[in-house]
From TrEMBL:
Protein name per Swiss-Prot or TrEMBL: DNA sulfur modification protein DndD
Keywords: Coiled coil
Domain (Rad50/SbcC-type AAA) ranges: 5-230
Top-level taxonomic group: Bacteria
GO biological process: double-strand break repair
Keyword Coiled coil on entry: yes
Stored PANTHER family: ABC TRANSPORTER ABCH.3
Coiled-coil annotated residue ranges, if any: 193-237, 262-296, 438-479
């Protein structure tokens, strides 16, 4: 993925921004300078917001993001546009992604999204029908995720000042674990292992000799199954509550302020009821279509399919019967044969062409026997005319398979039906507000908020109970039967096999990551430069840990590294993960020096930034990238330089080419 251009209209300090960020192959760096408060972080936020959207909660929040210099001068609209390229199936795709935010008539912020992928356009907005919006939004999110998932973005678009925070609370361990799963596809093998374990449980039940053990084993498995269902139901309920709380937040806030609009609430109720009825109607139509499909499946699917499969055999039968019919049509009756035979024999005798003792009856009998051989050769003599007509009819049947249309109808209904419980809850809450006042919505909202917290706590309890049950289930001593049980023996081998496959893949990738981190730290961690002996990652992703060792053999404690060394460490780690991961995103760093000391500065300039990524965007002040020294080291690797200039009077930021007055010579 490479960013080509960022546009921002009326966004915070930018009244109108149109910035070219394309880089040359040998010069991957874009250097953007600006004083503190000049708009560097806002530029960072504009790129992030264009990719993943702005979280604008209300009118006040919208106005806080709107450029101050735009009030009364331009349309109150925030627009972010990002032009970027990415690889999909080894083909370069160009994307134009635009997000627009305005206040609607009710003065609520609404969003519209436009994505052009090599000419294929996807659009949706707040007013888009739910089903169409869900489909378009899913396509847009899928495209963005294919280039850079939001959950990984913070590790490639980040503030260097905060990078050392990744060393706290096992955050970076989770990132390593996630990246490993992306690179090696661990989820696939873990799921196969889990499936094998489940089948093994089922097979083990059959092999338990004692009935008491069987009953206890079944009980444990059933309890675990119920707990897993409870966990699934819990997560589904949480999802419903999340959607409800998100949807009703604005109404709740107004109710708390005593500013609810009864007419607006009635309109919301009408809209919700209309959406619910429309979904229910489509669901009912789908059920009827399924019934019709089932009732006619033999005629429209099975018989045409049978006809298609049997077509060569039916053709062979028809040809054989046609040939037999022609042969039968040429047969003579016994009387005709005897009459003709007598005449021919008499003629031949009169002219002495045959012996006088030839018996005409014997000749006639021979001809009759020859005709009987024709009938004996009919391989399909058991088929009568009615059977043949049935075969001809079967051959003419054409398939009308409505399953594809039905499946498409089902897919479009899935999201709408999933949303129904939340829509009904919203409708009922709003109805209660109309009859009982704002207290009802406040009460319901806060009750559901408390219920959500209770469900979250229940998840921890359920997971602990499932772990305990797993230990109890695997603690059973399964009695091996005397007779061979191939399925059980195979399952016993499969569980560790899938685990071994995952561990082997982990070991292979682990060694590569360890060596690359060691090489980078050996060059960049100045306090131990040239003396990083080895790096060790734990063998399994659970309870993940990373350790570095001195060439003398002792471990170097990460906690004892100073702030600058921690920043170097985490940036090295992120660089290695980027190189080995599934994604190829640009790297954008704000406050590039973070807490780096003087000694570490040269290392970043010479060893890190030039080879970090195919596109690296650096946001800095002159105290971070100094004009008289640091800039000279970076210049050979720079494609473009810009300086952000803050106009206090006009309350906006403009962009000039060059780095604080230094033009880029290429």
């Amino acid at each position: 993925m490479q960013i080509q251009k960022i546009k921002a209209t009326n966004f915070k300090t930018y009244l109108s921004l149109d910035l070219d960020l394309q880089v040359e192959d040998e010069c991957p760096i874009i250097l953007i300078g600006g004083l503190n408060g000049g708009g560097k972080t806002t530029l960072f936020e504009a790129i992030y917001g264009a990719l993943y959207g702005l979280n604008i909660k209300n009118k006040k929040n919208f106005e806080e993001l709107l450029n101050n210099g735009a009030f009364g001068k331009t349309e109150p609209k925030i627009e972010l546009e990002l032009v970027f390229t990415g690889q999909v199936l080894h083909q370069t795709q160009k994307y134009i992604l635009r997000r627009t935010y305005i206040l609607n008539k009710a003065e609520k912020p609404v969003e519209s999204v436009y994505l052009n992928m090599n000419g294929s356009v996807f659009t949706y907005g707040t007013a888009t029908p739910a089903a169409q919006r869900a489909m378009s939004e899913q396509q847009v999110n899928k495209i963005i995720k294919a280039n850079l998932p939001q959950e990984l973005s913070q590790y490639f678009l980040f503030d260097a000042m905060q990078s050392s925070e990744l060393l706290k609370d096992n955050v970076f361990a989770q990132i390593i674990r996630d990246n490993f799963q992306n690179v090696l596809g661990f989820n696939k093998y873990l799921q196969l292992k889990k499936s094998a374990e489940k089948l093994l449980q089922e097979r083990s039940k059959q092999r338990l000799k004692a009935q008491q053990e069987i009953e206890e084993y079944n009980k444990l498995c059933e309890t675990k199954k119920n707990l897993e269902k409870e966990l699934g139901d819990n997560e589904a309920n949480q999802d419903v509550l999340y959607k409800y709380l998100t949807s009703m937040k604005a109404t709740y806030d107004k109710a708390k302020q005593g500013a609810e609009d009864q007419e607006h609430i009635r309109l919301q109720v009408q809209q919700l009821e209309s959406t619910i009825k429309d979904t229910e109607k489509k669901a009912a139509e789908y059920v009827e279509n399924v019934k019709d499909f089932i009732n006619t499946i033999e005629l429209n699917v099975f018989l045409p399919r049978l006809s298609s499969s049997m077509s060569p055999e039916i053709e062979a039968i028809m040809r054989s019967k046609e040939e037999m019919k022609k042969a039968m049509d040429q047969r003579y009756s016994a009387e005709e044969i005897e009459d003709i035979t007598n005449k021919v024999i008499t003629y031949l005798k009169d002219f002495a062409l045959i012996a006088s003792d030839v018996n005409p009856q014997n000749v006639a009998s021979h001809i009759m026997a020859t005709q009987q051989d024709i009938v004996a050769e009919d391989n399909y003599a058991f088929l009568d005319d009615i059977d043949l007509e049935a075969l001809k009819t079967l051959k003419k049947l054409n398939a009308v398979n409505g399953f594809i249309q039905l499946d498409g109808q089902r897919r479009s209904l899935d999201d709408a039906i999933t949303e129904l419980p939340n829509l009904r809850i919203q409708r009922d809450s709003l109805k209660g507000t109309l009859t009982q006042g704002s207290g009802n919505i406040i009460k319901e909202y806060e009750e559901k908020k408390r219920e959500l917290e209770r469900l979250k706590k229940d998840v921890e309890r359920i997971n602990e109970e499932i772990k305990k049950l797993d230990r109890d289930i695997h603690g059973y001593d399964v009695q091996i039967q005397q007779e061979p049980d191939v399925k059980y023996d195979t399952l016993v081998k499969l569980v560790p096999f899938f685990e071994d496959v995952a561990n082997t893949l982990l070991a292979n990738k682990k060694a590569l990551i360890e060596e690359q981190i060691r090489e980078q730290l050996d060059k960049m961690l100045l306090s131990y430069k040239g003396h990083i002996g080895r790096v060790e990652l734990s063998d399994k992703l659970d309870n993940f840990s990373i350790r570095i060792y001195h060439t003398a053999g002792n471990e170097i404690s990460l906690n004892q590294l100073n702030a600058a060394s921690k920043q170097i460490f985490i940036q090295v780690l992120l660089k290695v993960l980027r190189n080995l991961g599934d994604y190829n995103p640009p790297v954008m760093i704000d406050t590039v020096m973070g807490v780096i000391d003087e000694e570490g500065r040269d290392v970043l300039m010479e060893e890190y930034f030039p080879e970090l990524a195919e596109q690296t965007i650096l946001l800095c002040t002159t105290s971070e990238i100094r004009k008289e020294s640091d800039y000279q080291k970076l210049e050979p690797f720079i494609s473009k330089t810009y300086t952000l200039i803050r106009n206090v009077e006009e309350q906006n930021t403009t962009v000039t080419e060059g780095y604080f007055g230094i033009p880029l010579y290429k």
